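Cross-posting from the modeling subforum.

Setting up a comparison between two proteins and wanted a second pair of eyes on the formatting. Protein 1 (sequence, then structure tokens):
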Amino acid sequence: MIPLHLHISGFLSYRDPVELDFNAFDLACISGHNGAGKSSLLDAITWSLFGEARGKSTEVINLHADVKAAEVIFTFKHEENVYRVQRSLPRNKSTVLEFQILNPPADPLPKGEGVWKPLTEKTTRETQARIEQHLRLDYETFVNASFFLQGKADQFTQQNASKRKDVLSNILGLEAWEEYKNRTAEKRKKIEAEVETIDGRIAEIDVELAEEEARKIRLGELQTTLNQLSTAREAQETLLQNLKRTAALVEEQRKMTSTLAAALERSRSALAPLESRLAEREADRAAYADLVNRAKEIESAYKAWQNARKELEGLDRLAAEFHEHQKERAPLQEKISVEKAKLEEEKRSLLAEEEEIGKQFSVMSELKNGIEQTQKLLSETEAMVKERIHIENERNSARERQAALKVENETLKSEMNLLKARIETLKSADGATCPLCGQELSKEHRKSTLKQLEEEGKQKGDLFRANQKETSELNNKIAGLESQISALSSAENNRVKYASEVSQLTERWERLQALAKEWEATGKKRLKEVEKVLENGKFAADEQKQLAKLDKELVKLGYDVSAHDKAREKENELRGAEEEFANLKSAKEVSKQIEGEIANLAEERRKRKEEIEEGQKQYDAAFSALKEAEASAPNLDEAERELFRLREEENRARGELGGAQQRVDVLKTLRARKADYEKEREELQKQIARHRTLEQAFGKNGVPALLIEQALPQIEEKANELLDRLSGGNMSIRFVTQTGYKDKKRDDLKETLDIQISDSAGIRNYEMYSGGEAFRVNFAIRLALSEILAQRKGARLQTLVIDEGFGSQDTQGRQRLIEAINLVKNDFAKILVITHLDELKDAFPTRIEVEKNERGSIIKVV
């Protein structure tokens, strides 16, 4: 995979759209300060291809509110074809993924030419799978193969021999075989559980087959019992039919007796209403007779009521006219009262305001004194704030100087350590050539070089100690300044507090002064006007005139309320005469009719009594006959209970017989089922044996061990090819996978993975090397691992990304990194190195500078 073009928008620190054209360079360095967004360029590539960005797959949208989505468009060349992947993630929505191929393919991609053919599938998951299928790489393999991340370059070589195989297994992706082993073990356990279940079922069947003879004996006993119960039940059914015929005759007699009792009760029920009705009509006759006897008295009372009624109607008319005048009077009185109440309320409000104004004059004096005192405190705190700012500036300057001294001493320390190592190397050198410069190593050269190195070391040491002393003095100075700043820490808060108090007190004093002036101008004058109006009673003049006129008209009417009430009471007392007069007229008309009804009701009552007497005689005779029949009747309930008992026993016996027959019949089925279970168990045992074999094959000593053994020669060959170029043909490596035990009595060998290095001095283990030689070995083995990993996935390693040069390197280490990259640059189409060090980035022909401003990260190709 060779990158061609990258477009980023709203992704991580890249708020605004940026473009990066890879066609302009083959070897470049990505530089910028920490946090500027250098590694985010690589995150954009992996996120577009795999939806992964250093574990931040759901946090890639730029945090600014105006960014609506993160979008990356990555164009790359792979196997002579040009592809484009466009992945976008709108805020609070799902990912959108597009995959396209250029048709016809073009390299390099010309602008405005070619047609993009979509390769996008129905779902994002399916599209992702198609991308990985074309690349023949997943995220983990891509990162391990193409990316040399910080601190991971020597992850393989720095492990001890026993752990290197585990690291190699992880790099080659062999951990999948452990998953295969676990899955096989789980499946084997499930099969073993099935075998245990089958064994349990076979044991259950054996228990039932052992009961065959007992079941057959029980079946015969139940058949005999059922035959006996069937005979007894048939005899009881015949007896019950005879008893039912006798009981039916008794029931007929009981029904006739019940019918006679009901008829007698109906006759008695009909007699009671007749007697009640007769008594009512006789009472009506007596009442009407009393009214007729009092006719003269009732007529005289009726005439007196009519006269009282006429008098009351006249007074009602006069009262209506009086009330009409009263209705006109009420609104006028209400308006006069409302107007007076308004004036009295206004007077009370003005008096309260006058009292409040008097109190506020004393408050204004206090406010004036408070303002003067607070202004004085405010001036004092402002002076303290200025002093604090001056001290903080002095402290910050001391801190900056202290930081500069720290950086300088760290550099001096590194340089002194390097000088010390060179001195030790020179002192211990035994050959004829100087290990430092390659010249002839004579006594004079050794002595002069050591003197030069020691003088340089002394100068650096003196400067280092002077810096330490100045740093100590700065610490004391900063501590003193911090103490002064702490003592003045409350000055700013006090300044804000006093300024706020001055503003509030001034505002309140001005508000009170304005209120006092307003009262003198308007309120005081209005109070005098209201008091004068209430004292003279000169308010609601029109309403008072209309009210006086209405009072005169009411006097002229002469309406007497007490006389009206007495007339009303008299009419009410005599009102009952009207009802008695109406009853008298009715009594005269219906008296003859009541006499006829009383005669008819008396005759009907006589007939009902004769009917009841005859019905009682018939009922007594029928009841006597029923008692005789019931005394001689058989016990039908007992016979039915006996039949029910026999039927239940017969059914129970028949059910037991069926169950016993079924238990005998099922034995044949169980024998066949047992044979099937035994056959199935035998097949499952074979599967268990096969799964155990697979578990051994998938374990560390099985297929993964074979794959490692197969990969090691390839890694060794590729690493030696690279190391030959890096060391000028002086170094090579060999992997040793087995070694003998310390116990010489053991004949077998233990598994290991030692790295042996051959050079001009002989063969030594990797652990004996350090510095530049170890770095070359790390670089060669790591690059070999990357290429082998890519080949195993069916891909070609065409792009190499180095993030910060395998961790922190000193000056020599950085120089070796540059030399190693230049040696292998022809093996790759694109090489990108990420760094923030100026001395490293200047060594590359092309720089991609990443900067960060208020709008986010931006890039510039130099």
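Protein 2 (same layout):
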Amino acid sequence: MDELLKDFLTETAEQIESVGTQLVLLERDPSDAAMIASIFRLVHTIKGTCGFLGLTRLGQLAHAAETLIGRIRDGATPTPDAVTVILAAIDRIKIVLAALECTAQEPDGDDSDLVQALELQSAAADAAKDQMPAPAATPPKTANAEAPPQVRGGEEATLQVRRPETIRVAVGALERIMLLVSELVLTRNQLLELTRKETEETLKAPLQRLSGLTSDLQDAAMRARMQPVGRLFGNLPRLVRELAGEVGKKIALVTEGAETELDRQLIELIRDPLTHMIRNCAAHGIETPAERLAAGKPESGTIRISASHEAGQITIDVVDDGRGLDISRIRQKAIALGLANEAEVARMSNDDICRFIFAPGFSTAGAVTSLSGRGVGMDVVRENIEAIGGSISLSSMLGQGTCFSIKIPLTLAIAPALIVQAGGHRFALPQVSVVEAVGVGPGSAHTLERVQGAKVLRLRQEVLPVADLCDLFGLTHQADEADARLVVVMRVGTLSFGILVSAVADVQEIVVKPLGASLAHLKVFSGHTILGDGSVVLILDPAGLAGSLGLQRSSDYAIVAPTEPPTPPRESTRLILFRAGSGALKALPLSLVSRIESVPSDRLTQSDGTLITMHQGRLMPIVPASATIVRANAIHPVLVISLGGEFMGILVEEIIDIVEEPLDIQIAGGAEDIVGTAEIRGDAVNILDIMHFIQQARPNAPLRSIARRFKVVLVDDKLFFRDMLAPVLTSGGYEVTTCASAAEALALIERGISFDAIVTDTDMPEMNGYHFAEAVHSHPRCGDLPIIALAAHATNPVLAAARASGITAVAGKFDRRGLLETLRACLNRDDLTNTELEQRVLTEKAA
């Protein structure tokens, strides 16, 4: 029997029993409007499902009954005759359902007498409402409805269900059982621990039996949530049939692995993403019959869906044998939308270019149809899959087809996890986000480095930020953890980062329990679990850990139609690399350096706390790039910086090289003298902040007073960026107030606090930066208030959205100099930007 028909019979049997009971109660209390509405909804649902499944006879009966109940809902009195005829219709429906259960087909029969009686009662209700004479009504005969051999008793017949013995259980009840099983496991483990040292044999046997039964019960409770993925495949043949007719193509559907079991909750969550992918295959992938014949293919295309277990996950592949993705069109569309420039796209692999189709608003369709062209669908697929801890990938070959591969956990209630240790505590880390674990202890091939006081790991060709769990949670490093430490490399979406732990204690499947209300606000935890020994540990949330490092998903933007030409390819920047103190190499744009001189230590003199030396017959202040590099009897390289006819020097330890590379800041600077960290020729390199050294050497220079104590409010929901940018604005001379949300900043404005400018993040929960700007400008006192938006990249879509919301300018989050320049320009301080140095800064920023 069809799976949909089975579900219909199960649900309808329950609904029919409910309708009969409620009708009797309604006859006793006709004023119960809520009960009338409930009866109407039940019969309406039955009628609608009958139409969907093509059950004509049942549909006619349910429709006639629905009409009469609708009259009662609209105010007609439920007379005894009306209730009697509705009950008779329900009895007839039971007979038909019983036959359906036996033969999977509606039985032959004539229900015109019942339909006529229901219609007469409906007319009588209308007449009574309009105070007209009611037509004569008859109690209907039901003997002419022949019952199948398995159903006897005429009007007294009940639905004899011949399905496997099953009951419908609320998910909440299953969760309650899971909770009790977990408590039972905890008690079992405590008993085992108490009797571990006992030699009494009479206790050991019952405890072993209890342990086995507890494990079996735990497994059974978890299996109660599992259902075959075939339940998800049941309605797909009809979907594909309708899609094929709509697009004028011939498409066959093949499903494999229907017996693969998956958590029922996940089946419902991936239903829509799977539908989107199939629609995409039908609209874009499969060619028309004529195109397939011309390409030497069979006239009918094939969409193949397969499910399988793989490494503790469910893998669902959606494969078509169509035309494949047009890489060139995707490349052109990505450039046109400002997602990447030509130089960046040229370095991408075909699979990387294909991933652009998951960006919001992305579509290569030439026209909008009911199936494609609106730019919605595949971004929804990606977001829904990632929301349940899964991932999606694709591969495509032109002319041969496309394969989408989804990997999702078996269940949201139980998950494989690493049990890691840090600071004497244990934590559970979901294995689905773990890439690898690398040792960083003595003798290891991998070591941690410090970049502006933050830990990073250089792993092959990547520089990964690292979160130390001890530092993150304020734990004390244990003495026995110092020598053996691991970095667990995580990946969330397109982001990669590391978690520093002392050891991986175990790998096991954990039962996920929600956090209590007092801990629910902690984003770095997703729940808690009870381990086999009865101890309770917190489950780390990979996305929350990424957020604690200030990382943002690359998909946190919306695509809008570009209103200006795409950004030209980025030019390379000439950089001077040097060593200054311990840690990573340092660098400065070569355009900022007038010359390099060698200065012996005996030519350096202390004056008013500042090192000075003679340069071209004039005194020149010197600022060491690191406080530890000034040595006696040594010759130091000094980078000479020109300041509009005046000079200052930056003393370094050793000049390494001059390179020409695109300057891509990957990690924001955490110290005042560092703009950020970039990867240059495989090394992590700190880019120095020239403004910091200028202010040290020339405290009375114009740059020191560029802001003239303007008041600025900095709005960002992430503490990382508030801590990073507030010192930048303060060092620029601004009086800074920080807010963790747009609502907090608006509250300050409502209280009458005045600001000269606002610097706000664009991507914030509850209210983003664009809506925040609109709200600020709608305030009577803030219509002309300059607002600078912070974005990871000032792409064309970001600029267009900023303009639409009244934002004054956009600055890069990691471009501290650019932020100060932009802020100064917005506050009409352009007259202070005419020095040679500032011109060079602007030139370098443009490059």
